[in-house]
Amino acid sequence: MDQDELHLEAELEKIRPLYQKVSSQSVSQEVDERILNLARNKTRRRGWSIFSIFRAPITRGQISTFATVAALAVISVWFVAELQPGGNRSGDVVMSKSLAAAINKIDQDELSEQIKKALTTVSELRTAVVASNKWNTQVDELMKIEVPAFTKYSELANKLEAAGDTEEAQEMRELTGKLQKIFKQRDPDWRNTDKNDQ
Amino acid sequence: MSEFTSNDLDRLTDAALMLRFKDGDVKAFETLYKRYSTPASGVMRHLTFLLRDPHAAEDIYQDVWAKIVKASDRYSEDATFKTYFYKVMHNAAWSYLKKRGKKIEDMELDTQQDDLDDSFWERIPDPKGNSPLLLTSLEECVTILQKAINSLPFPQRQCLLLQQDTNMTLNDIGNLLEVPRETIKSRLRYAVEKLRELMPPECLEA
After folding, report:
1. Residue B67 above 70 pLDDT?
2. Fold for the domain defined by B1-102
3. Which residue from A172, B166, B170, B189 could staple onto A157, CB 3.0 to 4.6 Å apart?
């Protein structure tokens, strides 16, 4: 520090005591509260925000992405429920091993295979939107095969019950009921409509 | 989050408090805020002098803290908190003045002499001794100093306020304002000369 600077510093130091006597206005309590609330909100947001791991403020873009993802999740759940007849959960529309065995026991292999195929088609329907062209086409194909055989399913359930396989009989009736619901969605008057004529 | 007591927090540096706030400790922020919000901190005085408008000073004060809270995620200990705080403050003040259409050249010329009416200047004793009034009161010296600081052009006022309030070195002030050290020195020299010119000697020599 040269002489010039030392002199300047000495001059500035002479001003300081008087400067310190100039009163500083107080900040209003309202302003204090506003600032402290801002800080509290900031720490609260850090607590719940999934974006907090990035240690950056949430941008509008992030909020928009988050809202879109959330909306898609809700829509997906709704679609899955819609696609499954009667709102059943995924995996319901399959034949259990015990049902397949019970059907085989009463020597109805051919019918057992037909039911399996029908159930496979029903499972595939879950990937299509109800009443979409794809869904309509698949259901129409299913109805061409299954509607003529539908009475056989009821008969099969009765036979299973007679053979003492009550649980399997119940399962058979539930599966039949699911098929009925799908058919009804496609055509409320499906019992009286011959799909082969369409 | 805070397992620190108020006493523990009081012992921490400003930067340490800011880092704790960054990690979610709101009590750390409250402690830090208390340090800078009391009249003794001189923050409002600094802003009022800087803007020459107490209402604008309160607005900018809020703005500064809002900026600090919002940017707390990105806070790092590159500089002392005080330097960071005053940098945010001076940037905000500068933006405010710019928005009001003040150019640096205008501010250089704007000495607000019109604020100092004739009666005020008549009361200031002639440094050569031909004083119309004898000034001995401390309050009067303070009032004169206030008016004298307000009469300084913005760049000189800015440097003087930083030097008086923060004890920063010429280098620090230069870094904060992004101006060469020599320019800061020259602005301070002009500021002192101007104050010397406007202040009765007894006010500064006492």
Report:
1. yes
2. Rna Polymerase Sigma Factor; Chain: A (1.10.1740)
3. A172
Judge: B24–A19 Cβ closer than 8 Å, yes or no: no
Domain-wise residue ranges, chain B: 1-102, 112-206
Q: What is the ipTM of this complex?
A: 0.82
Chain B 34-93, residues with CB within 8 Å of chain A CB atoms:
37, 39-46, 48, 54, 57-58, 61-62, 65-66, 69-70, 72-74
CATH of B112-206, one of 3.30.2270.10, 3.30.300.30, 1.20.1530.20, 1.10.10.10: 1.10.10.10
- Say yes or no for a CB contact (<8 Å) between A57 and B73: yes
Measure CB to CB from residue B195 to each of A15, A36, A47 and give the nearest one. A15
Contacts of B145 in chain A (CB under 8 A): 15, 18-19, 22
Evaluate if residue B39 carries a pLDDT over 80: yes
Chain mean pLDDT for chain B: 84
**Contacting residues of A for B185, CB less than 8 Å apart:** 5, 8
Cβ separation A25–B44 shorter than 8 A = yes
pTM score: 0.57
Cβ-count burial of A70 within 10 angstroms (0-12 exposed, 13-18 middle, 19+ buried)? Answer: exposed
Instruction: Give the residues of chain A that fall short of pLDDT 70.
Output: 46-95, 107-110, 126-127, 193-198
| Domain locations along chain A | 34-83, 97-197
Q: Per-residue pLDDT tens for B97-148?
A: 988 876 554 555 444 444 444 444 444 444 444 444 455 588 899 999 999 9
Through-space distance between the first and last CA atoms of chain B, rounded to whole angstroms:
51
Q: In the structure encoding, which two tokens stand for residue B23, read together?
A: 């990690």
